Amino acid sequence: MNMLVAQIESNQIAVIVIIAAILWLGLILTALYHISRNTSMGFSVKVLWFIIILFAPFLGSIIYLIWGKNKKF
Q1: pTM to 2 decimals?
Q2: What is the CA angle 66-70-73, rounded to 5?
């Protein structure tokens, strides 16, 4: 019985991890897509944002989507 409970808990943890990974990937891809389509941003600024997101994917994506998306560079 105890083994069954442990297996159910590990399956739930696996599902949570998979969902979190999909959301994380979606966040990164959304930021990269928006950067690539942003016409008000110069090429060097786009490259800088790409580098920031590659080195700090989660934090870089959130910073871009909250702060950098609407800035005129």
Answers
A1: 0.76
A2: 120
